[in-house]
Amino acid sequence: MKKIIRNILAALAIVLLGCMFPALTSSAASEPTIPDGVTVEGIALGGMTAQEAKDTLNGYVEQVKGQTLHLTAGEDTVVDIPFSQFGVDISDPGVIDTISQIGSGKNILARYKALRDVTNENAAYTLTFTCDRDALAGVLNERAGEVNREPQDAILVRHGGQLLITDEVIGRTLQPDATADQVAAAISGDWDQKDLTVAMTVEETQPEHTAQELSVVQDVLGTYSTSFAGSSYNRIENIKNGAAKIDETVLYPGEVFSFTEKVTPFTSDNGYYIAGGYASGRNVDSMGGGICQVSSTLYNTVLRSELTVVERTNHMMTVGYVPLGADATIAEPTIDFKFRNDYEYPVYIEAYTYNGSVTVTFYGKETRPSNRTVEFESVTEQTIAPGADVVTEDPTLPAGYEEVTQSAHTGYVASFYKLVYVDGVLESRELVNRSTYNAYPRYVIRGTYVPETEPPQTETQAPADTQAPADPAGTPADPAAVPSPDPSSGI
C-alpha cells in the first residue's frame, strides 16, 4: 500500500513540475539545453547544449591565456610578458564540465533545483585562474636588466647664456620573487581577465644630488681671463682641450677639485699636442705644453670666488700671461692644483676659449655682502740676476759661430696680496702667497773649429848638365885615348 502511495506522489510531482517547467518534460528525442539566465563571466549560455557551452567556455579560457602581463614602474610600462610564458590557466578545469551540465542532468529533481536557481538569479558563475609563480620569477630574473637602472644625479649646464637643469633619476632594482607573488595573487583574485597591469616591486636608490639642490646656482661668484695671442697652433689646441675638460664641472659643498685628475693623461689619445713648456729650468717641447695657462686662469677665478686653495705651486720661471704670484703650475704626477668648495651650495665651473683668450667663470649662490669687493696685488720683493752664460763648445762648428739656445731669465721673489674693500674703503690686506722664480743663465753653443794652415810652396831649379873640356882640335877629350908617358923614353 505504501509503495502505491509513493508512486502516486512521484507521478503527481512530475505532473506538477511539468506544468511549472515544461522544459523538464520535453521529449527525450530533443537534446537538453541550458536554461536561459545562466551566465559565466558575463557569457550567456542559455539555449546551448552541454557541448556548445563547453566549447564556448574553453574558447574563453584560451582567450584569457592569450593575454599579456604589463609590469609598470611609476607611470612607465617597462616589461610586457605574455601569459603563455608563465602558465596562466583556469584553476579548476572540471568546473567547465559542471557548468555545461546545468539543466541537462538525468535527475529531474536536480534539474528542478538548477532551474529554480536560474529563476532566483543565482546562475551567474565566475571562473578563477592561476599561474606558475616560479616560472614567472624565472622570467623576471632574465629580464631584470630591462628594469634595473643606476641612480643619476641632476645635471647642470650653461647653454645660450642660461643655466639649465636636468632632473635626477631614481635608481631601481627589480625584486623578482616579490613581483611574482604580487602577480600570482592578482591572477587568482578578482580581475577583468583581460590584459593585466601590475606595478612591479622594486628597490629604489636615491641619487646623491637633486635638481632642487642645483636650483640655487644662479650668481657669478668670480671670473678671470688670460690671453694666448701669439701662441703656436699646438699650444692653443692644448689650452682649448684643457678648458673643455674642466668645463661643466659641479663642485658640491666640501668637495675638493683636482686639476690633474680632470685634465690628465697628457697623451695624443686624450687630445693633446707637443708644444713648448718648462722642465728643469729649460724651455722644452712636451706633450700638453701650455696647459698651465688653464690652471693659472682657474687659480685666479678661485681667488676671486673665494674658494679655499688646498694645493698650489708657482712655476720655476716667470710666465707672461699673469702677474707674479698669480700662476699655478702642474706636473704629472707630482705637482697638482687643488681647491675646495667651503660654501653651503654647489659651484658650477664654466671654462671656454674665445678670440685668443681662455676664460673661467664660477657660478653659485652669492652670499657675500654686495658692498664688499675683492682685488689682488702683486709686489716684487727681490730681483735675481741670471748667472754667467752656460757655453757649450762644438768642435764641428767654425770658430766665431754662436747660437743662443735659451735666453737668460731674471729671477724674482714676489708677494701676492688679497685686498678687501667695503663701501670702497680698504678693510684688509692679506698675504695670499710668496713665490720665488729662479734665475737662469743664457745657454749658448759656440763653434771652435779652426782649419789647419799649410806652409807656402817654393820652386827649385834642376842642375845643369856637366860636359868634358873641348879638344883644341875640336875633338872631345877622351881619357882612354890619351897615351900614358913611356917611362923608358927619358923625355
Jot down its keywords:
single chain, 491 residues, alpha+beta, Resuscitation-promoting factor rpfb fold, four-stranded antiparallel beta sheet, three-stranded mixed beta sheet, 27 strands, disordered C terminus
Residue-averaged pLDDT, rounded? 86
Number of helices: 10
Arrangement of strands in the largest sheet: 13-21-20-14
Parts with pLDDT < 50 across at least 5 consecutive residues: 1-29, 466-491
How does the overall form come out from the CA principal axes? elongated
- How many beta strands in the DSSP annotation? 27
**Strand portion, in percent?**
25-35%
In total, how many domains does the architecture comprise?
3
Terminal residue distance: 233 Å
Q: Which value, in Å, is the CA radius of gyration? A: 55 Å
Helical amount among residues, as a percent range?
Answer: 10-25%
How would you classify the quaternary structure? single chain
Brief overview, please?
Residues 1-28 form the signal peptide. Residues 455-481 have a biased composition (Low complexity). The protein is of the alpha+beta class.
Q: Overview of this structure, please?
A:
The chain is built from 10 helices and 27 strands. With 491 residues, it is an alpha+beta fold. Helix content is 23%, strand content 31%. It comes from Catenibacillus scindens. Residues 455-481 have a biased composition (Low complexity). Residues 482-491 have a biased composition (Pro residues). Residues 370-450 form the G5 domain.
